[in-house]
Amino acid sequence: MLSISQVPSFSLTSVKSLRSPSSSSSSTLSVFFSFFPKVSRFVRASSGIPNLAACSKPESIPRVNNAGLKLEETVEAAVKAKIRLDSWISSRVHGVSRARVQSSIRLGLVSVNGRVVDKVSHNVKAGDEVNCTISELQPLKAEPEDIPLDIVYEDKHLLVVNKPAHMVVHPAPGNPTGTLVNGILHHCSLPCVAYSNPEDDSDEETLSDDEEMTSSSSLAASVRPGIVHRLDKGTSGLLVVAKDEHSHAHLAEQFKLHTIERVYISLTSGVPSPSQGRVDIPIGRDPNNRIRMAAIPGSLSRGKARHAASRYKVIETLAGGGSALVEWRLETGRTHQIRAHAKYMGVPLLGDEVYGGTKSVALSLLQRRVSRSDQEQILELVSRMDRPCLHAIVLGFEHPCTGEVVKFSCPPPSDLAEIVGLLRRSGREKVTQLSAFFLTFMPWEFLFSIQRCWLC
Q1: What is the DSSP string of 120-172?
Q2: Phi and psi (nearest 5°) for 234?
Q3: I need a surface site. Which of 20, 78, 117, 172 has the fewest CB within 10 A?
Q4: Is 357 exposed, middle or buried (0-12, 13-18, 19+ CB in 10 A)?
């Protein structure tokens, strides 16, 4: 059922701990403040990095391998419906990542009612007897690569990275090198390790952009940069990476409970109506195109999609209504959630060729609304767009070591700032030109009659 409801106004001024601007990044921040005045106030709110000195204490976190840990339990009667085997074991074993639980299942270290089960998506029910032995840490196949990384924050337990557009998060068929994982291996001075490409197992969370990654990186018993969540290749912005298993499990649990704060900004093709609200439409595989997702009303009860909810607010209308700068806050983290919900609302993200924000759509909306002097530049910018205009601007979570709530922010990249600046300027020039036309050619009596109608 469609649910797009009015919600209270969002505020980005609550960010507590933000990236500290350095001299090398001051020009980028100046561009950001210039192009995003309505968003930049929360970046200006603070430049301090949270005090996480306690994280340097070795005793603050146990360094436990957990290999050989045994679980022998009966699925409780409180479980009314069937539940995935890997999910149930993960809920019973703390401090062990779900990826490692899945590895234990695939290695034949788990039995249900005395029978070995090697399928992670196997369903268990109340009364089933489960025996599990946690496996050794399984490595990845990835080589360290000297890839420049924009590190927003780092301590001995985690990294917060500003991922550029076009960078893939982890190695996969078609993208074996040049990924964020390759860069982190080099940054952390870790050796070449083996990598096992994750299997789908019909679990969309393993492919999720922002939900916990069930197939995290595994490097060593003491140091394990783990990909807890990911962003699309074309999406830029903030992403947290765990350095050890405890941090990975702790962060993954926060994603599972939807307590992570995630704020995105985007440019849409057209303007959302109403200007702010909540989209509560399940998301599943598009039956007509398996490489994309779709918002499918009423599909939740039929098991064809998963619950997905997004809150949005129009920050600014651009180019006379041809586009809008929109803030998104995610309550869930389904694959392509913002992109699928934006398409469902009829305002696909600008530059999103997969979900309808094509170059032709963008030009049809923008060219007739901008001044003639800017039409050529609009054409050039739109022609160069090679990714959805989407940026993960704020990331907040509870630090797995100190328990302190930390929040980080980074300004959008130059490609997004450039097109926002042009659309804002063009919209204003168009309005000025139209005003001049009316004042020159329209009878005063007609103008006054329009004014009286507005006042009524």
Answers
A1: TT-EE-TT-EEEEEPPPPPPPEE--------EEEE-SSEEEEEEPTT--SS-B
A2: -85, -5
A3: 78
A4: buried
Q: Residue 100 is inside which H or E element, if any?
A: helix 98-106
Known catalytic membership, residue 232: yes
- The secondary structure of residue 175, as a DSSP letter, is B
- The span from the first CA to the last CA of the chain, in angstroms, equals 37
Q: Which two tokens stand for residue 373?
A: 């002097």
Give the integer Cα–Cα distance in Å for 281 and 338: 11
pTM (two decimals): 0.67
Please list the residues that pair with 131 across neighbouring strands.
72, 111
**Phi and psi, residue 93, nearest 5°:** -115, 115
| Spatial distance between the Cα atoms of 124 and 432, rounded to a whole number of angstroms | 66
Interval 173-230: pLDDT, tens: 567 789 998 999 889 876 655 544 443 332 333 333 444 443 333 333 333 357 888 8
**Could you read off the pLDDT of 358-375 as tens digits, one per residue?**
999 999 998 888 878 788
pLDDT per residue as tens digits for the range 18-34: 443 333 444 444 444 44
> In what helix (H) or strand (E) does residue 388 lie, and over which residues does it extend?
none
* Per annotation, catalytic residue among 209, 210, 232, 415: 232
Q: Which comes out higher in pLDDT, residue 120 or 43?
A: 120
Q: Which of 235, 321, 324, 308 is CA-nearest to residue 276? A: 324
CB under 8 Å to 174, separation ≥6 — which residues? none
